[in-house]
Design a protein that fits this description.
The complex is a heterodimer of chains A (831) and B (227).
Chain A lengths: L1 H11 L1 H40 L3 E5 L5 H12 L3 E15 L5 E9 L9 E3 L5 H4 L4 E5 H7 L6 E4 L2 E12 L12 E5 L3 H4 L10 E7 L5 H11 L4 E5 L5 H49 L4 H38 L13 H26 L22 H19 L2 H31 L5 H10 L6 H30 L9 E6 L4 H7 L5 E13 L2 E2 L2 H6 L8 E6 L7 E5 L15 E5 H7 L6 E6 L2 E13 L10 E3 L1 H4 L5 E6 L3 H14 L4 E4 L1 H39 L1 H13 L4 H39 L7 H27 L3 H9 L1
Parallel strand pairs in A: 3-8, 5-7, 14-19, 16-18
Antiparallel strand pairs in A: 1-9, 1-10, 2-3, 2-6, 2-9, 4-7, 5-8, 6-7, 11-20, 11-21, 12-13, 12-14, 12-17, 12-20, 15-18, 16-19, 17-18
Chain B lengths: L2 H11 L15 E2 L6 E7 L1 H4 L9 H11 L4 E7 L5 H6 L1 H5 L5 E5 L2 H5 L4 H17 L3 E5 L9 H18 L2 E3 L22 H30 L1
Parallel strand pairs in B: 2-3, 2-4, 4-5, 5-6
The chains are: A alpha+beta (831), B alpha/beta (227).
Chain lengths: 831, 227
């Protein structure tokens, strides 16, 4: 009987019930999926980091390791904590046996077991460790091409003679060794002594790579080794090694955690608003039940049962959905993620997800449920349909709920401080949204509007009992979160992923002299981009000397280093002017200082502005110039950029060199390098093709992960949108009936509803965008330490799209209301 | 600083000067300051003072030491990080606009570190010395030795350049610029190749007598020219 009653209530409020159930399901799916995935992803990322660095712990030195550190390492290995391998790296001139040809090469001498992480793929397909034996070398294809050798030939290295047995096609460590001269040569550490290349007077990078039995102990082992390290010996874990790589991985994990919490909150808001809407429709029923003598326990019990039933459906759906999603994600990511990533949700993950999810359900449903107790029998006679649910939350309960939710957030974000900051930010967000909604709705109510439809639309927003403010706050908060995720994701992509486009140059040539410029361009077939470079130091800004001591201590780039000045009269394809009339301030009066255009990043470092006088020393010769414009880069392409750009006339006499960037098919790069070096022996080629491909592969994989997690929260946001609109359905029904009774036709009612939704959407979208821009700026600057771009056009398009969706959904949801005959409605509700 | 910035900066660090005839600077003016002799320290990052403050670079320390020892002069730091001998030759005209009395020439190390044929460096330095000689400028040639990992053949060819050129040109010759500094941990930055402030102190200590010798030589030449 009771169950039938519950089912009847659910059927009667099926729209809200479906939204509620889906929200519970989504929070379950996202929590379980995010938690299990995050752990797996953390493992994958840790493995990627280790593969990039070559081990969990890396010990480096410019000279041979001290005995104390050797002993400690032997102990660590002896205790079974780690396996270790060595990788000595240096440059040398490799020679072709029986020929004149020599080639500057990048030598890596490794011991057995290398690589501990990642791969060195060989053309033969055989395992690297099997192939690299004493007496042989494995080389990059470029070495064969440039020395005219084939596999099987011998290579001379120092005093050593080694046979080439295979060719390297891929190396997972390449991205961190991006900018190296010369092709790779792998040799066995045992052959080093025979070459005589390493020892006193050599410049060698000594490296120990450790693979730990428990990768979680990396910091402990690193600290233990560091304690015994001597001067110049550095110990780092893969996670702390390579600041940019670490920052990227840290940012990625933090972003994933944030998304998980956001999804939870969004789903929670969805639960709260759909349940509130459902109960709003029940007010009269509850009042009648009270009038008939039903107690609080009975009524609350019934609705708690309702929530639990729907919640249970949501949980079942969530787990089912999670299982389906798991398969889908696996399909989606197949081939990109290592096979190790099984996406298996462990029992602990399910339990944790269930716990966190139910806590969220409890918190978000407590608010509307608590309102039931305040509904009086008199509500039967009142017209307000929502009044009975207001101000029903006891403060203590609210506080307890908030504490509980904070605990959930802290657990999810895995950091107390960040979790508390996050909660504070969420509360501020809701408060700001509430304030903005109050201001705008109040302002609109006071407007004198001549159009009847618009007036009705605006008035209905501030009608007593209408939930407009709640809807706006909910919608705007959810949209602010969504926009923030969108903006942060775009900025993360711009900072890391789009820096490596597929069409980026793969071959660079340095040190092209002025009188070689034209010859060089002709020689490479005119397809090179050429950049003149003049080295200089900045001495003073407006006669204020650069404080070199302070600059040296500055984090990131500083004004104390040598800069590259360049000259040209136009902006580059990836630049735009953000201040100033043209690059050099239009026509300038004779006798004025020469103009200089500044890049916005150096403007930030030096606190410069247009009109400032910059004093340079070009290799001991003084040059003063006036800042006439500020440029910004529109894309993070792999192109050279210059802080200071002068007109050609100013610098054409200065000592300069040229830098060329080319995109050539990878197979032709070595040949071109050879030809250029034969013709211009002073020019140094740098081939970054292999590194770029490897980096691109990694970035694509991580980009897909970010997108996947972000889409989960966008789904939650969509549900809230639908839920918010459904929540106002009852009020609209009444209004439509009243308009029709008063003589309004269907187009008029449609117009009023359309306008009402439009105002609601624009207000929510606008407020959300404002808050999202500020929030994302803060997040990028303070937490992620990346530059922030506001993407104004994309943001406006997003607001437009959201507005269109809200208006369309609103009209769709109102369609059944609009077509309803007033008579039928009155008959149904007059009893 | 992201990797792209890093890459471009590194690329930039490897740039150097230019070659061939150049018109005199049109807008640049020689920096003012100090009286006495003008000594131009021309070289790569070892002269520019990569990784240390400007005041700790060897030209600044040398200027102080010379002035304290009663040799009034101004030592101009005309060092360019990562410059090869091709770059040095290319910007020689620019350096000459400073009208130096003495040039301390320290170049070629980057040619070696990039495995460029030693003949290129030898030809370039020979041309630089020739031009300086024609202009009556006294030269201190700082010799360089290449790291052993480049192989005995290359190292022998490279190390032979400086004594040979010194004999040919009769310049004041400091056999090894980094004598007692190279490969000494306490005198170098973490990269193991650039001296730290103490390392530059040691360089100046070693270099000082050669510069004094050049100053005396220059004075004698001036005297001979004037009488």
């Amino acid at each position: 009987m009771k169950l039938r009653h519950l089912l009847r209530d659910i059927l009667h409020n099926r729209g809200q019930a479906v939204i509620f159930t889906l929200c519970v399901a989504l929070s379950m799916v996202s929590l379980v999926a995010v938690n299990s995935l995050r752990r797996d992803v953390r493992g994958v990322i840790a493995e990627d980091a280790a593969a990039l660095q070559g081990g969990d712990v890396i010990v480096r030195s410019g000279g041979e390791f001290t005995p104390a550190l050797r002993e400690e390492l032997a102990r660590v290995v002896g205790e079974g904590l780690a396996t270790a391998t060595t990788a000595w790296e240096f440059h040398s001139v490799a020679r072709r046996e029986g020929g004149e040809a020599v080639l500057f090469s990048n030598i890596k001498a490794v011991s057995g077991g290398y690589p501990l992480y990642g791969t060195v793929e060989l053309r033969s397909g055989r395992p690297f460790a099997e192939v690299l034996r004493p007496g042989v070398v494995v080389v990059g294809q470029a070495l064969l091409d440039r020395l005219g050798l084939v596999v099987g030939d011998h290579l001379l290295l120092g005093e050593g003679r080694l046979q080439i047995v295979d060719v390297v096609v891929r190396e997972s460590q390449r991205p961190v060794e991006f900018f190296t001269f010369g092709p790779r040569v792998f040799m066995s550490e045992g052959d080093l002594a025979a070459t005589g290349l390493v020892g006193k007077g050599s410049r060698t990078s000594y490296r120990w790579l450790l693979r730990l039995a428990d990768p979680g102990a990396a910091e402990t082992v690193a600290a233990r080794l560091q304690a015994r390290a001597g001067e110049g010996e550095r110990v780092a874990s893969a996670a702390t090694s390579g600041s940019r790589i670490k920052r990227f991985f840290d940012n990625l994990l933090f972003f994933l955690s944030l998304i998980a919490v956001f999804t939870l909150l969004l789903a929670g808001i969805g639960m709260q608003s759909s349940l509130a809407a459902l109960l709003r429709r029940q007010v009269k029923t509850i009042a009648i039940l009270r009038a008939l003598g039903a107690g609080n326990r009975h009524i609350l019990g019934h609705h708690l049962g309702l929530v639990l039933l729907l919640g249970l459906c949501g949980v079942i759906l969530g787990i089912g959905g999670g299982l389906v999603l798991k398969g889908a994600v696996f399909q989606l990511l197949a081939g990109l993620l290592p096979e190790k990533l099984t996406l298996e949700a462990s029992f602990a993950d399910l339990l944790q997800g269930l716990g966190l999810g139910l806590t969220a359900v409890l918190f978000f449903t407590f608010l509307p449920l608590a309102g039931i107790a305040r509904i009086k029998p008199a509500a039967i006679f009142r017209k307000e349909t929502a009044g009975g649910l207001r101000r029903a939350m006891p403060r203590l309960a609210l506080l307890l709920g908030l504490l509980l939710l904070s605990a959930v957030v802290v657990v999810q974000l895995d950091d107390v401080t960040t979790g508390l900051w996050f909660m504070a930010a969420v509360l501020v967000l809701v408060a700001v949204m509430w304030g903005l909604a109050h201001l705008v709705l109040g302002g609109l109510a006071r407007l004198d509007i001549s159009s009847l439809a618009l007036r009705q639309a605006v008035r209905s927003l501030s009608r007593p009992g209408n939930a407009s403010r709640t809807v706006v706050v909910t919608l705007a908060s959810a949209l602010a979160v969504l926009f923030s995720i969108y903006l942060v994701e775009r900025n993360l992509r711009a900072a890391y992923i789009e820096s490596y486009p597929a069409d980026a140059p793969n071959l660079f040539f340095l040190d092209i002299q002025k009188d070689q410029r034209e010859d060089f361009i002709d020689f490479v077939g005119g397809k090179a981009e050429i950049f003149p470079v003049v080295r200089a130091r900045l001495l003073a800004i407006n006669d204020r000397e650069i404080d070199r001591r302070r600059e040296v201590e500055r984090r990131g780039d500083s004004l104390s280093r040598e800069f590259n000045l360049t000259y040209r009269d136009d902006l580059l394809a990836d630049e735009k002017l953000v201040a100033g009339k043209g690059l050099f301030g239009g026509n300038r009066a004779p006798g004025r200082l020469p103009p200089v255009s500044l890049l916005d990043s150096v403007v930030e470092i030096g606190d410069m502005e247009i009109g400032d006088t910059l004093h340079f020393s070009i290799q001991g010769v003084s040059l003063k110039a006036e800042a006439t414009s500020i440029r910004s880069r529109t894309r993070s392409l792999l192109y050279p950029f210059f802080y200071f750009v002068f007109p050609e006339a100013t610098l054409k006499a200065a000592p300069q060199t040229f830098f060329a960037a080319l995109k050539v098919p990878q197979g032709e790069a070595s040949l071109l390098e050879n030809r250029v070096v034969s013709r211009f022996p002073n020019i140094s080629p740098i081939n970054v093709g292999e590194s770029a491909v490897e980096l691109g592969r990694l970035m694509a994989k991580l980009s897909l992960l970010v997108t996947f997690f972000a889409s989960l929260s966008i789904l939650a946001g969509g549900l809230i949108l639908v839920g918010s609109i459904l929540a106002t359905r009852l009020a609209r029904l009444e209004e439509a009936v009243h308009y029709k009774i008063l003589g309004g036709d269907t187009p008029f009612v449609l117009k009023v509803f359309g306008l009402e939704n439009l105002v609601l959407a624009l207000q929510s979208g606008g407020a959300a965008l404002l808050v999202a821009q500020l929030g994302s700026w803060a997040l990028c600057h303070l937490a992620l330490d990346i530059s922030f771009r506001p993407y104004p056009l994309a943001s406006l398009v997003a607001v437009g799209a959201i507005t269109a969706v809200v208006v369309a959904l609103g009209l769709l949801a109102s369609l059944s209301v609009i077509v309803k005959k007033p008579g039928a409605y009155l008959r149904e509700h007059s009893s | 600083m992201n990797l792209v910035t890093c890459l471009v900066l590194m690329a930039a660090l490897l740039f150097s000067g230019c070659r061939g005839e150049q018109p005199a600077p049109q807008r640049a003016e020689v920096e003012e300051g100090g009286g006495g002799m003008v000594i131009v320290a021309m070289g790569d990052s070892l002269t520019a003072g990569h990784g240390v403050s400007f005041e700790q670079s060897y030209p600044s320390q040398l200027e102080k030491k010379l002035n304290a020892a009663g040799y009034p002069c101004r030592v101009v730091n005309a060092g360019v990080s990562a410059e090869t001998s091709s770059g040095a030759l290319a910007r020689l005209d620019w350096v000459l606009t400073m009208d130096p009395d003495i040039v301390i020439l320290e170049t070629g190390a980057n040619d070696g570190l990039r495995g460029i044929d030693p003949q290129v460096a030898e030809d370039n330095i020979r041309r630089i010395l020739g031009t300086l000689h024609e202009r009556g400028i006294t030269v201190v040639l700082a010799g360089m030795r290449m790291v052993r990992n480049l192989g005995p053949e290359y190292v022998a060819r490279f190390d032979g350049i400086y004594p040979r050129l010194a004999r040919e040109s009769g310049v004041v010759f400091m056999p090894f610029f980094l004598q007692g500094v190279a490969m000494e941990g306490r005198f170098n930055l973490e990269d193991g190749i650039h001296p730290n402030a103490a390392g530059y102190g040691k360089v100046v200590e070693n270099l000082f007598p050669y510069v004094v010798q050049a100053i005396e030589k220059h004075r004698a030449l001036e005297k001979a020219g004037g009488s």
